[in-house]
Amino acid sequence: MGILDRLSRLIRANINDLIRRAEDPEKIIEQALEDMRSALRDARVEVAEAMAELKKLERDQQNYSEQIAAWENKAAEALRAGKEDLAREALRRKAQAQTLSDGFLQQIAQQRSVVDQLMTQLKALEAKIQEAESKKALLIARKKGVEAAEAVRRMDSKVDTHAAVQAFEEMEDRIQAMEDKHAAFSEMDKSDIDKQLEDLGSDKAVDEDLARLKKQLGMS
């Protein structure tokens, strides 16, 4: 299983757990990033181990390659010394070294392929983390924007706008009624004053008529 496959399984498992527990989306984002960073650390270790194994295979193959050359020289020396049996044995040892060398060459090719794949996945993971880091601030900002909008919506739902408007209208009607009542009393007070003034005028006329009558009767 590749690095990215394991990472995907890990992130899905952790995020699904957070979602089941109805965690904060911001916490889910942070958890996903932490999982990716953890996977990146593991991937780097895995790549380093694969590269170390490749170097070991190359050293082993180089060792057998040197043995091939050495047994070739020994076989030649044995022939020059007239020791064909020794030359034959040296060539058998050379053949064994050649077989092992060829086997290591195959292992080296396979291990290089593994290292190349791991390096490709490692770079892809690094790119994904960089992209996620870049999107993190935007996602959190969008989340906060949604939260603010939801807070406004909840506030609006708690406030009965119709009732508030109706209360204001009722208060306005009551104040208007109070103003009308005050105006009525003021008008009534004004009427009383006018009546008193009229009564004063009537009393004066009566007094004058009474004085005239007394004078006429010689009573003044």
What does this protein look like?
Pfam families: PspA_IM30. The chain is mainly α and 220 residues long. It folds into two domains: 157 residues; 61 residues. It contains four helices and no strands. Helix 1 packs antiparallel against helix 2 and helix 2 packs antiparallel against helix 3. The chain is rod-shaped and about 200 Å long. The model has no long low-confidence stretch (mean pLDDT 78).
List keywords for this structure.
220 residues; coiled coil; mainly alpha; 2 domains
Low-confidence residue ranges = none
Going by helix content, strand content and strand pairing, the class is mainly alpha
Overall shape: it is rod-shaped
| Domain tally | 2
Which range best describes the helical content: under 10%, 10-25%, 25-40%, 40-55%, 55-70% or over 70%? Answer: over 70%
Summarize the main sheet. none
- Compute the number of strand runs: 0
Radius of gyration: 55 Å
Mean pLDDT: 78
**Span between termini:** 140 Å
The count of helical stretches stands at: 4
β-strand amount? under 5%
Helix-strand pattern: HHHH
Please give the structural blueprint.
Elements: H1 3-20, H2 25-80, H3 84-158, H4 161-216
Structure summary:
By secondary structure, the chain is an all-alpha fold.
